[in-house]
């Protein structure tokens, strides 16, 4: 345990909190409101934003797509530069918030914003931003990461910098009322895998991180089991807060991280448009089986403390089966079959992408090279 931890995002949690943006954004600042395909126009969120910003000067940019593209976002970058925007307000799910982070950083750079994603430009400043979260899943509302796609080349890459950490996050569970079931399930699965990526590694004896990770996993499991109660206030609030805590930096402080499931999963989204969470459910069980020796101690701990399984010689195997059964109980498939030209082509397509993106030593031990990825994919692709 050796770390520096700060999470400077102010969280405004609860019903009716959207109006808090009125005082959280200085009134003299010119605001660009960024949103997605229009869900906020159908659930009253847009109207609440308009009302809260009545004393501000503001304009808007819409049409940020799920898995946001550089091509779309660069049009917002131009607006920020041309109109001297002082503050960006992201209103949406992970895609809108991630996209807004890219816009915030690219607007302070004279070159092509994609250089940031390639690590060829180091971000040293960004336009300040805040977020109104409408889909609990990614934790993007209070972390410093973002994932952006270049549609032209099917590259889905991530970047991290404290400069794009939101100043505040509004988390009103009422906004979840219009979420399709599919997106609620995606939220449970994405948050679950975020905890796993920071927990199913090797034994490290960091009791706070492990204990809190297990509490979050048990919450998410319960919320999945109580999916029939998704229309109640407590269910919504608990999912929103659990998903946030899963990736706000705390449980990952001072412990090893994996993230191989995410890196391989991103390629399924880039190649075939698989929803982010669903790409994870496809990759993770196969990856855990491939890495079972290195991860055995933590899988056994998870089996006991999350699934309540008894000690046995195959406890780690049982824990993986329980994870897989959890996804399947939510109707989420754990193998991929939507490829065009047969399994071998599909496996090689992902390998080619991983190779191009330098994803050749993944996982907490950097043990997942392309050969191991090929084995994982042979299990994960039907
Ligand atoms: O665009 P609109 O019309 O708003 O519709 C969206 C979108 O179609 C809809 N939606 C959102 N809130 C709604 C709603 N529909 C009805 N009612 C509401 N209240 O949901 C659809 C999906 O939205 P999206 O933002 O794409 O989903 P999510 O939050 O799952 O974000 C996924 C993106 O986040 C990245 C993923 O790679 C993916 O690009 N991630 C970001 C991370 C981060 N920044 O830390 C970590 C994650 O691991 C992840 O990689
Ligand atoms: Zn994720």
From TrEMBL:
Any coiled-coil regions, as ranges:
none
- Per the record, the domain of life is Bacteria
Q: Which UniProt keywords apply?
A: Oxidoreductase
Identify which cofactors the protein needs according to its UniProt entry.
Fe cation
Query: Might you report a single GO cellular component term?
Result: cytosol
Matching entries from InterPro entries are given as: ADH_Fe/GldA (IPR001670), ADH_Fe_C (IPR056798), BDH-like (IPR044731)
Q: Which residues form the Alcohol dehydrogenase iron-type/glycerol dehydrogenase GldA domain?
A: 8-173
Question: Which GO molecular function, any one, fits this protein according to its record?
Answer: methylglyoxal reductase (NADPH) (acetol producing) activity
Q: Does the keyword Cell cycle apply?
A: no
Ranges where the Fe-containing alcohol dehydrogenase-like C-terminal domain occurs: 185-354
Q: Hey, which family's this protein in?
A: Belongs to the iron-containing alcohol dehydrogenase family.
Query: By what name is this protein known?
Result: Aldehyde reductase
The species is Vibrio galatheae
